[in-house]
Amino acid sequence: MTDRGRAEDSHPHHVLVDVDQTSPGVPSAGLVGAFMLLFVCLGGVTFLAAAVPLVIVVTRRGRARRERMRQWMAQYGWTMTESPAVDWGNRLPGQNPGGVSRIICGTLGGRPVCVGDYSYTYRALADNTGRRGSARRAYVVVVVRLAEPGPTIAVERRGAFSKLARTLVGEGDAGTADPQFDRTFRVLGCDPMTAQRLLGPALRAAHLAGQVPPWSLQQTELMTYYPGNIDRPEQIPRCAAPLVRVADLLGR
User: Fold this and answer.
1) Regions in the chain scoring below 70 on pLDDT
2) What kind and span of H or E run contains 30?
3) What is the pLDDT of residue 230?
4) With DSSP H G I counted as helix, E B as strand and the rest as coil, what are the percentages for the chain, rounded to 5?
5) Residues with Cβ < 8 Å from 64, sequence gap 6 or more?
6) pLDDT value of position 4
7) Could you tell me which of 210, 36, 221, 197 has the C-alpha nearest to residue 111?
8) Domain extents in the chain
9) Each residue of 105-118: b (16+ CB within 10 Å) or e?
10) For residues 194 and 231, what is the distance between their CA atoms, to the nearest angstrom?
């Protein structure tokens, strides 16, 4: 053997071997991915299986509510208008001019009445990190139309500190010369003589007894509002009747 041959044999031979680097008993990355995909798929199927019946139930309930409302309106002669052209939003929280989504109008106690859904969106703190998000507030608005226009006036309970009422009818506090009433309620937007003329003993007594809500009057539209939505037809007379009583007692 030549010296060159002996030199080559003295170096070890390097052999390339395909070795599985996964340790015994540990699943491969591909197998883990497959299991994860299967888990996600099964989770999606389970979610759909639970969500589909829920959607069906919600849809059926919505249809049933609309049908009950339709039957109630047909029975009592009320009508519904979607996206009505009214400017009530300027007198409501949030002052959203397009916030009235629908109104249901008819007659209650011999007076023309409309009850509507109103809402506005505002910016609010979403969590304790200080990040801000959007929130929605909804109200049922009630309007009774008077036969003749009246003065601009608003009656609110003291302590409510209604910035909205003061914005609409101005600053000031017109007393009625009734100490008990004046301690509990604030009359805005008119002079004391007008307040005393409109808020007679019967209406003041109804306020003190909690039988009528705070209200405002502009031209022929007597208005009040409550938090919430119109979900059931029986809400309509229940929400409107106290304001109809205010209309009946004005000046009494």
Assistant:
1) 1-62, 125-130, 160-173
2) helix 29-76
3) 94
4) 40, 30, 30
5) none
6) 44
7) 221
8) 35-76, 77-249
9) bbebeebebbbbbb
10) 38
